[in-house]
Amino acid sequence: MRKLMMAVMAVAGLGLTVGCQDRNKVQQEQQDVAEAQRDVAQERQEINKEVAETRQDGREELTDAQKDLVEEQRELADAQHKQMDEQNDQAIGGSGNTMNKNDTAANVKTEEVEGTIQSTSANTIAIIVPDKNNQVMRFQANQQVQVMKDDKPVALKDLKAGDEVRASYQLDPNGKMMLKSIEVEKLSAQHPDQQKK
């Protein structure tokens, strides 16, 4: 019996020893995992920091590029204005006149025509003029053109082929017909049941 008790105690002691070794091994593995997690967290922080710095650098570069673009656009606009002024000066000076640009603009004659719209777009319009043997006159338009329909301002593109109109225009220094104003007459070809007064 004593031998049996000794054998049981030996087995129990062996179990405790093995259990302690297993526990130590588990604790070591847990420490290794915790250390690996700390390493990953630290690497993640470093990556996030690098990403933030890269984004900041990218934003600064984008801001600088936008500033450069605005400056280049300003310089281009200045150059275009200067070129237009020089062309106007040459056109005025080349004709032998000593007038300045404002005098010339004030002396430009405004012409009027009546006709029917053949076609229109955002910056051009073609009008068939019966008084000129149904000649098609093509006009250039800019943002300052006054466009009226039914006594209300509208956009040039809102006018339709077939509308009867009265248009005023001027010739620019290059000989182009620049539209100044256009008005749709209240009774147009699109409404034949109404008669003109």
Structural class label = alpha+beta
Overall pLDDT level: 77
Strand content: 15-25%
Instruction: List the helices and strands in order.
Output: HHEEEEEEE
Strand order of the largest sheet: 3-2-1-6-7-4-5
Helical coverage, percent range: 40-55%
Overall body shape: rod-shaped
List unreliable stretches of 5+ residues: 94-104, 188-197
Q: How many domains make up the coordinates? A: 2
How large is the count of helical segments? 2
Q: Radius of gyration, rounded?
A: 44 Å
How far apart are the first and last residues' alpha carbons, in Å?
Answer: 139 Å
Largest sheet: 7 strands, mixed
Write the layout of secondary structure elements.
Layout: H1 2-94, H2 101-107, E1 111-120, E2 124-129, E3 135-140, E4 146-149, E5 152-153, E6 164-171, E7 177-184
Parallel strand pairs: 4-7
Antiparallel strand pairs: 1-2, 1-6, 2-3, 4-5, 6-7
Task: Provide a brief overview of the structure.
This protein has 2 helices and 7 strands; from the N terminus they run ααβββββββ. The protein is an alpha+beta fold and 197 residues long. It folds into 2 domains: 1-107; 108-184, Copper binding periplasmic protein CusF (OB fold (Dihydrolipoamide Acetyltransferase, E2P)).
Q: What do you see in this structure?
A:
8% of the residues are buried. Helices cover 51% and strands 22% of the residues. The C terminus is likely disordered. It has 197 residues and is an alpha+beta fold. The protein is built from 2 helices and 7 strands; from the N terminus they run ααβββββββ. Strand 1 and strand 2 form a beta hairpin. It has 2 domains: 107 residues; 77 residues, Copper binding periplasmic protein CusF (OB fold (Dihydrolipoamide Acetyltransferase, E2P), Beta Barrel). The protein is rod-shaped, with a radius of gyration of 44 Å. A 7-stranded mixed sheet has the order 3-2-1-6-7-4-5, with no helix packed on it. This is TolA protein.
